[in-house]
Amino acid sequence: xxxxxxxxxxxxxxxxxxxxxxxxxxxxxxxxxxxxxxxxxxxxxxxxxxxxxxxxxxxxxxxxxxxxxxxxxxxxxxxxxxxxxxxxxxxxxxxxxxxxxxxxxxxxxxxxxxxxxxxxxxxxxxxxxxxxxxxxxxxxxxxxxxxxxxxxxxxxxxxxxxxxxxxxxxxxxxxxxxxxxxxxxxxxxxxxxxxxxxxxxxxxxxxxxxxxxxxxxxxxxxxxxxxxxxxxxxxxxxxxxxxxxxxxxxxxxxxxxxxxxxxxxxxxxxxxxxxxxxxxxxxxxxxxxxxxxxxxxxxxxxxxxxxxxxxxxxxxxxxxxxxxxxxxxxxxxxxxxxxxxxxxxxxxxxxxxxxxxxxxxxxxxxxxxxxxxxxxxxxxxxxxxxxxxxxxxxxxxxxxxxxxxxxxxxxxxxxxxxxxxxxxxxxxxxxxxxxxxxxxxxxxxxxxxxxxxxxxxxxxxxxxxxxxxx
Length: 470
Description:
CATH architecture of the largest domain: Alpha-Beta Barrel
Oligomer: single chain
CATH class of the largest domain: Alpha Beta
Structural class: alpha/beta
């Protein structure tokens, strides 16, 4: 075995062993707590940031005679006109969750005036600190014309004028700040789903042509060989067998890749059979040309879902997954516009909290990094999910090999199932698990039975899904 592969396998096995010691109930423990912040200041500019804490402002109020005051939320920032010493009071209710960094508060303030910061938890004061400056006015402007020299005399001591912002960092004590009872978080029913690709067709099937593969062409873009042969995705017998295998593997539903008009034919057959089998179906929107296009697609999904009990729902809303390409192409403002007034539960490939804030849940399509990096990404997303009562999704993959469609491509060996197991171990932090993939044969991430692996990954998925749900 090559040393690089051996090292990666060792890392994965070590992490797997460590995570196996972490009970799922503890991994999903809620650590969000309320903290009250009060800021009393006459300074013209105050910014408050935290170390060791992620936070969300639930409610805030400002008392000030100066209507020009600006207050923003991350970090907390109060800004007035330069040298404005009008008294101001900011009160904010925060939800906080700890990170791995040292616990501290960093305050940056303009030089004039006085600033007092008070933090309270569980009704008790955790911090009460005041900063003062002597300077109360900006430096005097020089006269336009030179004044007549004054008679020589002993110069008076110049009053110092403080310039520029000052920074202060104070350590915080967890036993004082993190003392409130953790708040309950919305409970999401654990789900195991799999990305499903319905883009395959053959001449003697409903497609009437070869789609996405053609066995008559050498190296026809399939890493492994389907046990069902080079099938047509809309074939009722194929769909029936795929659902049966998925349920055998402990999978609750498919997320169908949504690209072209052909996908509608596959979806019709998938929903027809899923309705009868109590098997969930969702869609993975891959392209949206504009905010209006996204909005239109989501409205169509909402209408379609009303006709099918199998369509996956959360809080009565049909669930739709959004590919990262859509999020990046539309940007924050475009995404917000596209989602406006839609009655759909959206989950996106969002690693940025700003993007996550617009969605109902987040994860990412595939994590092929070593498990400790995957776990770090999950931990970061988990904080945002906790603070905002949103759904957290982890992706798991059995391996990866796209060298049939890309050059030079990438290969992540399956390592006899160890690659897959290590990813499931890290997924204990998530509310849902999505398998990448059921049948993305081009990238070799398939768990559908194949000539190469038989039903190995059906059986392994069942074992790992049962372990994850405990």
